[in-house]
Amino acid sequence: MSGMANLKPKHFNWRMEGQVAVITLDRPERKNPLTFESYAELRDTFHDLVYADDVNAVVFASNGGNFCSGGDVHDIIGPLLDRDMKGLLEFTRMTGDLVKAMIGCGKPIIAAVDGVCVGAGAIVAMASDIRFGTPEAKTAFLFTRVGLAACDMGACAILPRIIGQGRANELLYTGRSMSGEEAERWGFFNRLVDAETLEGEAIAFAARLADGPNFGHMMTKTMLKQEWAMSIDEAIEAEAQAQAICMQTRDFGRAYEAFVAKQKPVFEGN
Q1: Is 223 exposed, middle or buried (0-12, 13-18, 19+ CB in 10 A)?
Q2: What count of other Cβ atoms lies within 10 Å of the Cβ of residue 86?
Q3: Exposure of 38 by Cβ count < 10 A (0-12 exposed, 13-18 middle, 19+ buried)?
Q4: Which of 46, 63, 138, 217 could form a cystine bridge with 105, CB 3.0-4.6 A?
Q5: Alpha helices (H) in 128-231, listed in sequence order
Q6: How far apart are CA 138 and CA 249, in angstroms?
Q7: β-strand partners of 58
Q8: Residue 112 backbone dihedrals phi, psi, to 5 degrees
Q9: What DSSP designation does 30 have?
Q10: Could you state, in order of their start, the residue ranges of all structural domains in the chain?
């Protein structure tokens, strides 16, 4: 395992709150668009989190009242018009790899969504484990608005599992904006929070998860991913094996000892 607490990325903000990493995009004057460079650096960072023993949860937060306005029109959309098929596929696979890295990083990710959350920004929120939003949040999977299909970065697979097929169909076909209240009602947001307290509440929630059991959280995230493609019988067997592994951890014994002593368990991640 390695440490990432002192990470100094070039293309987004990173800070630590205890064992919680807080990520924000750093172009608030343009509502935080993604660039080729920030896509790639975020992908690599989430890949590396698998091996980080000093980060136990992640908050992907908003900046300047907005979450993310998607791919930068000038820095990404324009240059893509000059690429051939090989170059275009290189880009679309790279963006998809960010979602794969988020899902595979082994750490719970909480998205704290305020204001604009559209295009690839909506995908980043979608790929997170938990989503807090504000009443002012506006989430849109607007790919059809720019002449593309809505099947971008896993949207057609993941979004229906969060909000249901019919609701996902509407958002993906039309590209329309989903309000904060609607997003909570439909289950996209786990809760609505005032903008002034959004980041703090997301960090506090992440900190509770970061207290552990972190091996158990990693295994939970792993199984949530793996069981998508399993039958019920396969999933039950896989969970039996996963839980037997977790029962070998010292944290399992600590929880029992704390219960017997009528104390709160202190998990250490092993």
Answers
A1: middle
A2: 7
A3: buried
A4: 46
A5: 155-163, 165-174, 180-185, 198-210, 214-226
A6: 42
A7: 21, 109
A8: -110, 100
A9: G
A10: 13-210, 214-260
pTM, full prediction:
0.94
Digitized pLDDT (tens) for each residue of the chain, 270 residues in all: 578 989 999 999 999 999 999 999 999 999 999 999 999 999 999 999 999 999 999 999 999 999 999 988 778 877 888 899 999 999 999 999 999 999 999 999 999 999 999 999 999 999 999 999 999 999 999 999 988 899 999 999 999 999 999 999 999 999 999 999 999 999 999 999 999 999 999 999 999 999 999 999 999 999 999 999 999 999 999 999 988 898 888 888 898 788 889 888 889 888
Report how far residue 159's alpha carbon sits from residue 182's, in angstroms, rounded to the nearest whole number: 15
Q: Which amino acid is at 159?
A: L
